[in-house]
């Protein structure tokens, strides 16, 4: 696949990674994004074998042939049906915010549908608004599972010392919801659509710093909002004690709702905060 760009690069090419040099470049990109000490990086051998056995090892290359992004995952079986676990998605810093992650996921979807795979799952940090908006708003995924401290301490500069809590996204590749989001037929809800909904977790402010504020009781309506900071990275780096408060509060809000039959459907940006929309 080739897609013209307007960001100073003549062209981005998205295709399966081939040969030892490209796979080694993928390992280096993992170290660049997550840090050299990242314990969960995928080595060349697994990148190679994963694709051979029905997985996806696909890269995005700029006009000079440099790897600027990739998506990787493995395909297996669950309850008799094929399912793909999308393990990693990364984009180099100088091309972020331009839709390349979305294009990599679209190419992943195309490859998997060609092989008869219709269900994809992956995890992401519930405190990362940008990733959440991609997963729910742009891709049409949903989340029905929350895993506390799933990976333990990874050594990544991105994760720091906080528990690695994760939401598990389910992406039904040929569902109406996914097709509507990818084609733009149905846009994600805006801020006005969630402003008046009951909150299982809200935010107060200490100056410009959002801090978690839990309501007296968890609402029981069919639609419920859980609030998170719009930019969690600076809080994690500068105020780790507040970051931990947020993570604990989000876990304590979302897990009981999922156990009661809700699922996470959307992430709605609202300035310095964002809102998860959960629907029962």
The largest β sheet comes out as: 8 strands, mixed
Distance between the termini: 39 Å
* Biggest sheet: strand arrangement: 1-2-3-4-5-6-8-7
**Radius of gyration, Cα only, in angstroms?**
19 Å
Note the main attributes of this structure.
280 residues; alpha+beta; 8-stranded mixed beta sheet; 5-stranded mixed beta sheet; globular; disordered N terminus
Characterize this entry briefly.
This protein has 280 residues and is of the alpha+beta class. It has helices spanning 19-34, 44-52, 100-114, 129-138, 176-183, 233-238, 240-259; strands at residues 2-4, 11-16, 56-61, 67-78, 81-91, 119-124, 142-147, 166-172, 199-206, 209-213, 223-229, 263-270, 273-279.
Structure description:
With 280 residues, this protein is α+β, with helices and mostly antiparallel strands. It has a domain at 191-279. Helix content is 30%, strand content 33%. The chain contains seven helices and 13 strands. It has helices at residues 19-34, 44-52, 100-114, 129-138, 176-183, 233-238, 240-259; strands at residues 2-4, 11-16, 56-61, 67-78, 81-91, 119-124, 142-147, 166-172, 199-206, 209-213, 223-229, 263-270, 273-279. The strands form two sheets. An eight-stranded mixed sheet has the order 1-2-3-4-5-6-8-7. It has a five-stranded mixed sheet with strand order 10-9-11-13-12. Strand 9 and strand 10 form a beta hairpin. The longest helix is centred in the last third of the chain and has 20 residues, at 240-259.
């Amino acid at each position: 696949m080739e897609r013209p760009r307007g960001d100073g690069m003549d062209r981005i090419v998205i295709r399966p990674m081939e040969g030892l040099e490209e796979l080694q470049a993928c390992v280096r990109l993992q170290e660049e994004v997550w840090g050299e000490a990242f314990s969960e990086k995928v080595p060349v051998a697994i990148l190679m074998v994963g694709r051979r056995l029905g997985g996806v090892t696909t890269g995005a290359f700029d006009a000079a042939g440099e790897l600027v992004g990739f998506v990787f995952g493995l395909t297996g079986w669950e309850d008799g049906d094929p399912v793909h676990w999308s393990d990693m998605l990364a984009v180099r810093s100088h091309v972020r915010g331009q839709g390349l992650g979305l294009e990599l996921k679209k190419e992943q979807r195309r490859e998997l549908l060609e092989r008869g795979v219709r269900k994809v799952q992956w995890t992401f940090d519930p405190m990362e608004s940008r990733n959440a908006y991609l997963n729910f708003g742009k891709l049409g995924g949903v989340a029905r599972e929350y895993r506390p401290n799933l990976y333990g301490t990874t050594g990544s500069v991105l994760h720091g010392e906080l528990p690695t809590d994760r939401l598990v996204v389910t992406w039904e590749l040929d569902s109406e919801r996914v097709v509507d989001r990818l084609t733009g037929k149905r846009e994600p809800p805006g801020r006005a659509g969630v402003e008046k909904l009951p909150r299982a977790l809200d935010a107060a402010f200490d100056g410009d710093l959002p801090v978690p504020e839990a309501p007296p009781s968890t609402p029981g309506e069919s639609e419920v909002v859980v609030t998170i900071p719009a930019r969690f990275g600076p809080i994690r780096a500068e105020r780790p004690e507040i970051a931990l408060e947020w993570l604990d509060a989000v876990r304590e809000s979302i897990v009981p709702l999922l156990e009661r039959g809700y699922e996470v459907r959307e992430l709605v940006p609202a300035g310095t905060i964002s809102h998860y929309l959960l629907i029962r």
